Amino acid sequence: MNILAIVTFIFFTLLVAFISWKFTKKEDLKSNTGYFLGGRSLTGGVIAGSLLLTSISTEQLIGMNSQAFSGGLSVVAWSVTASVSLVFMALYFLPRYLKSGFTTVPEFLEERYDKATRNIVAVLFLISLIGIMLPTVLYSGAIAINALFDVSKILNVSEPAALIISIWAIGIIGGIYAIFGGLKAVAISDTINGIGLVLGGLLIPIIGFSILGDGNFFTGVETLVVKFPDKTNVIGSADSPVPFSGIFTGMLLINTFYWCTNQVIVQRALGAKSLAEGQKGALYAGFLIILVPAALSVPGLIVFALNSGNVAHPDMAYPMLVNQVLPAPLLGFFGAVIFGAVLSTFNSALNSASTLFCLNIYKPIFKPAIGDQNLVKVGKIFALFVGLCAIFIAPYFGDTPEGFFIFMKRFMGFFNVPTLVIVLVGFFSKKIPPIAAKISLFTFMVIYGLVQYVLKIPINFLHLLGILFILCVTIMFVIGKIAPMKQAYKQSEKNVVPAIPWKYANSFSAIVVSFLIYFYVLLSPIGLIGLSFGEVYPKFAIITSIFLVISIVAFKIFLPKKKNIE
């Protein structure tokens, strides 16, 4: 391992830590709002950067490139279709959350249903964070760091030992950010690392395409599209990592849960200084996330093309390309960025777990009169406990036969969509009683577990999630008809931040949706897939020109008519 790469890695990692400390040293971290929500002072750019980097970690960098290497580009649906969910977040979810000044999603469920529903969902969130999300992040991060820096060779230990050492290192450093810095330190470090991840993440495929094209980037792109149409087609078949039909069933639901109700993500937007800034952050992230496949999946295809599909293990596809294309100084820089991406997701989840436990379980159930300073102390102790649990669980994720990425997505089905069901029904109904939410949660999890893990019925889990979503929504509305609440629900209004929406929210949403459609058209058989050499770029120019015209028209159609909206 080149010493220059190690020095660069250490320098950039310490630089991010110093800047985060500099920006947060004067923050009030003794109040629950200051510690858990960054003092409700986050701006649109910071929120967008934090949203993106929290969602982009090594389980995506390693896992999605692995899936792209093995099964093709249909796997990008996990990231690009999130743009629609972020539009939902900006236009529908966030205004409701900020209207009542909620700190966590379970707080809304308590107000809409009852305390028991809040407790159940808070516990489900914590189980998913401690048992699945955090260990997955640590395991995949350790794989990346080991592959990039050859930790076993540097420390002269075995590969399993190096993996465990890397897991502990990531867990300890990530815990320091989350436990001692609060949400704002997490968000600041996310933004800095996000810039590095965008620059480094785009540099990898740029250099990779140049190698594939014998020195010419554009020839490399054309070679991949023309020679490997099955790999570059985003319209997945039934055997693809993501069947196209699955986008409209379970995937849309999973992404809507993740971006609109998952505490790890929602907490960034809840820390906005105003509704307008929160909407900007969500929509900026929605646009940028459509560009994410350049870093998350395309490198896996480049490795497939360069190595004729011969790689020891698909999980090594991305680290292999990074090692092949980057010189030592940039390798150290990008290693630090990847390390930052791992820390971002890990410390964000720790902060959210601490928030959920303190505000939805410990304070309301055990110590209603506890002061802010003591509550923050409890949060730090709980975050330490959660971090240690994740560190001890993480090494076992290497034994999942289907790969850790799909394993995580499949198992999270127990928690994500049933939570989304009761949140959505709570938004759009006034008299459905609390018992309906509990029956819906129980029914969903029991049937999902039976079909997927006991009976093992051969149905794609995305389709199963869609079917169960419809079933449980129906159950809730039937119960609401049979035994409605005596008094209709009315949402509280606290106005903790300015509630004036961003005047371009609708117009920018239209741009985001049209860009997503453009992406799918471009990389499908009606776009560039199936063309010969010499045909790719002329058709690209035509499709892009049409998209630009449609985007301009869509933007103008949704421009606000009132000039006094800020």
How does this model look, in words?
This protein has 566 residues and is an all-alpha fold. It has one domain: Sodium/glucose cotransporter. Helix content is 74%, strand content 0%. Residues 34-38 have low confidence and may be disordered.
Average pLDDT works out at: 83
What is the approximate shape? globular
N-to-C span: 53 Å
**Beta-strand content:** under 5%
CA-atom Rg in angstroms: 23 Å
Proper CATH architecture: Up-down Bundle
Counting DSSP H or I runs of 4 or more residues, the number of helices is 26
How many domains make up the coordinates? 1
Q: Which percent bin holds the helix content?
A: over 70%
CATH class: Mainly Alpha
Identify the CATH homologous superfamily: Sodium/glucose cotransporter
Give a short account of the largest sheet: none
CATH topology heading: Sodium/glucose cotransporter
Total beta strand runs:
0
List SSEs in N-to-C order.
HHHHHHHHHHHHHHHHHHHHHHHHHH
Computed structural class: mainly alpha
Low-confidence stretches: 34-38
Topology of helices and strands:
Elements (H helix, E strand, L loop, with lengths): L2 H22 L7 H6 L6 H12 L2 H14 L5 H4 L1 H18 L5 H8 L2 H35 L1 H5 L3 H54 L4 H11 L1 H4 L11 H17 L2 H8 L4 H14 L4 H4 L1 H9 L10 H9 L2 H39 L5 H22 L10 H8 L4 H13 L5 H21 L6 H22 L22 H18 L13 H22 L9
